[in-house]
Amino acid sequence: MKPLTADQTLFRDPAVFESAHLPEVFNHRDTQLEALAFALRPAFAGYRPQHAVLRGVPGTGKTTAIRLLFAEVEETTTQVVPVLVSCQVEKSLFAVVAEIFRVLVGHAPPTSGVSIKRLMSEVAHVLMAREAAVVVCLDDAHWLLADGGLDAVLAPLLRMHEVWPAVRVGVVLTLSAPEADLARALDPGTRSVFQAAEVFFPPYSAGEVRAILGDRVRAGLYPGVMPPAVLDLVVERAVATADLRVGLDLIGRAARAAEEAGRRTVTAGDVLAAFVVSKNRHLAVTIEGLSASERAVLAAALDEGRAEDGAAGAGQVYGRVCEGAEMSYTVFHERLKKLERLRLVDVQMVRRGRGRRREIGVREGVEEVLCRTTGRHAGVAEDQK
Ligand SMILES: Nc1ncnc2c1ncn2[C@@H]1O[C@H](COP(=O)(O)OP(=O)(O)OP(=O)(O)O)[C@@H](O)[C@H]1O
User: Fold this and answer.
1) Is 61 assigned to a binding site?
2) CATH number of the domain that 211 lies in?
3) N or C, fewer C-beta in 10 Å, the chain?
4) How many CB atoms lie within 10 A of CB 155?
5) pTM score of the predicted model
């Protein structure tokens, strides 16, 4: 077989392997899409939409389901305004309401000199003037679970109709941390008004993963570029890591490597080499979303673990963090809880001699990703805030 020339490509459509790509074929999620559509239905008849909570481990299609449904709503009516907010990026009530304002009005509100009260009032008046309902999806809401962050965003949104009775707001939360406990994260008052439909997104079976990745290969690569045995290897890796995104990333990355090498087909070697990076893809996204102080706690736990040859004592980690920049123990504890919730570290009480101590173990892959994303040896806390 002749090698590829410089102007030839293996990709029918490279965008198909990008993380923001909205797939044309979205199988295996009919039940969840129906439950969501059912929750939104009252909004189309002039009532308040039902709230919903979408649960499922990462990569089970929650965001995609919402994006597809919202796109359909946008095409169908202007009476229901969908707003998708990533809680990894927008973490405050102001940021969420500013995004609602932006979608409604077409431009962002001023970032200074406007109080949250005024911004909410403006949003309410636009909604009332248009007789429209708004459905806000707080995507990856587990990012707000620490420090009462979710309650601070949710409670005012849920109470808008108490101030402006004609305002209709529906909230959809997506949560990919299975242990996320809404009952504990929300005040009793918020809990009592947040009556939400629970929609569960189970992990895909190996057969479903194969079908989804096969569809993506057909959409993104030219025929014959990825032989069935090589796709099997991709599927095996995606199933082993329980993350469909690893499979999608792996296909794109391996095909790019084959193309760069001037080959017309992807080999098992391309897949295995790409897997070294792809397997930690989700970790990389999670670590990129951390604040400087969260990162500092993670780096200190790694350094201390290395020094102690394993899991590190929480007190020692705290001491190491403070060597870089002052941090109160309360703030340290909150940062640690968040890292645990994001499954970057494990924290457990361990018996030592006659006493017990809290130990922090950093999960596999974190060190590699942290060093790659910061381009430095973990543990240098010069960027603490
Ligand atoms: N049924 C499906 N068919 C085709 N592609 C899918 C399907 N489910 C998920 N995907 C793809 O898998 C990737 C992850 O999906 P998505 O972002 O919707 O997952 P998620 O459950 O929201 O994950 P997270 O909790 O990490 O945000 C996306 O690229 C999406 O296109």
Assistant:
1) yes
2) 1.10.8.60
3) N
4) 18
5) 0.84
